[in-house]
Hints:
The protein has eight helices and seven strands.
Amino acid sequence: MINGRDGAAATQAARRVPRAVAHPGSAAVAAVADALVDTCVHHFGRIDILINCAGTAEPVGSSILNITTEQFHQLLDAHLGTTFQMCRAAAPRMVAQGGGAIVNTSSFAFLGDYGGTGYPAGKGAVNGLTLAIAAELKEHGVRANVVCPGAKTRLSTGPDYEAHIAELNRRGLLDEVSMQGALDAAPPEYVAPTYAYLASDLAKDVTGQIFIAAGGFVGRFDRPTPAILAYRDHHSSPPWSIEEISETLKRTAEVRPPGV
């Protein structure tokens, strides 16, 4: 099954894949997501793999200083809404049949380095949603992972995109290496194998992880863990004062290795 909001693009893509069925529409709409899964089961008898790879670019010049509420919600719908609706529709079928693989798409942008609002917020939410799905469905044999891809697509080409990346570099948000990587990304063929691996039986024991696939680079984000800066027993000690918190942070900053 190949889905896309652009019916012509979905149909064109389906023609390049043997036995593929195109199903246009926004997967952020519950009825479209349900119909996609129902059609898959009708044509193929089951649904073993779900790959969510959807999104849209921020408006040109978008920032927290000028984005509208409507624009923000549209961005969340494109990135998080599609992922949620498809997982919601597919997960019960996968549990009922005893297994399945979900691969969701996030982005380096969730770190905030590329600016914006709804784009990094949506991608960060995809990470959290995927980790929760992986934990919940592990006992049912359903795996869920994330790929943060870096590839030259319709979202990462053109003068507006190039101007945006150059501006981020000028403002100090992107270093020179990151800027050059963003402007000279490899084609999608260098990212696709990571998706295929996570969907395959070779990854049958891999779940709840966030991977990176960009050009010749394959990586993985470590799971965030809290670093304890200080501790006191609330049964026998008062709350921390703001001065104590400040001094604690100063001390930990002084002993932290450079670049960490």
